[in-house]
Design goal:
The chain has five helices and four strands. The protein is an alpha+beta fold and 150 residues long. It folds into two domains: 41 residues, Winged helix-like DNA-binding domain superfamily/Winged helix DNA-binding domain (Arc Repressor Mutant, subunit A, Orthogonal Bundle), CATH 1.10.10.10; 80 residues, Lrp/AsnC effector binding domain/regulation of amino acid metabolism (RAM) domain (Alpha-Beta Plaits, 2-Layer Sandwich), CATH 3.30.70. Strand 2 and strand 3 form a beta hairpin. Helix 1 packs across helix 3 and helix 2 packs across helix 3. The two termini are 16 Å apart. 13% of the residues are buried. The model has no long low-confidence stretch (mean pLDDT 94).
């Protein structure tokens, strides 16, 4: 049996269009009951399929004009949990992934300008014990960003 049925997918698509949409509007649009919408959304949260409904910020509109994708090589991969906890304390790091290339971790970092980026890299990240090396690519713009298609 599939995890998501036709109604789950339709409800998720309505929420993707507008995360603030009233459940009653979803019910009207899909011609189903309010109760069904509430129950389905609650179940999707409980199952961890929907993990939150948050605003999506346009970083450039709030003064963060620079972004990088930065690979991190660790002295010892066994230190990764401690280093990840230290990275979580740097608010400009918005994403962190385990990867299978020459890096252990791959980050997305947002910054206000090149000087801010330099400080994040050299004064914050490079000072975390156990980080051997960083290698960054500057983002020139986002062609697109989306959820997986249902």
């Amino acid at each position: 049996m599939d995890i998501l049925d036709e109604f789950d997918i339709k409800i998720i698509k309505e929420l993707e269009k507008d995360g603030r949409i009233a459940y009653s509007t979803i019910a009207t649009n899909l011609k189903i009951s309010n109760t069904m919408v509430h129950q389905r959304i609650n179940r999707l949260f409980e199952q961890g399929i929907i993990t939150g409904i948050k605003p999506i910020l346009n970083e450039k509109q709030i003064g963060y004009d620079w972004a990088s994708f930065t690979g991190i090589t660790l002295n010892k991969d066994s230190d990764s949990e401690r280093i990840i906890e230290a990275l979580k304390e740097i608010p400009e790091i918005t994403e962190c992934y385990f990867v299978t290339v020459s890096f252990t971790l791959y980050l997305k970092i947002t910054a206000k300008n090149h000087e801010h980026m330099r400080k994040i890299l050299y004064e914050k990240i490079d000072n975390i014990p156990g980080i051997a090396k960083t290698d960054s690519m500057i983002e020139l713009g986002c062609a697109f960003k989306r959820n997986i298609s249902l």
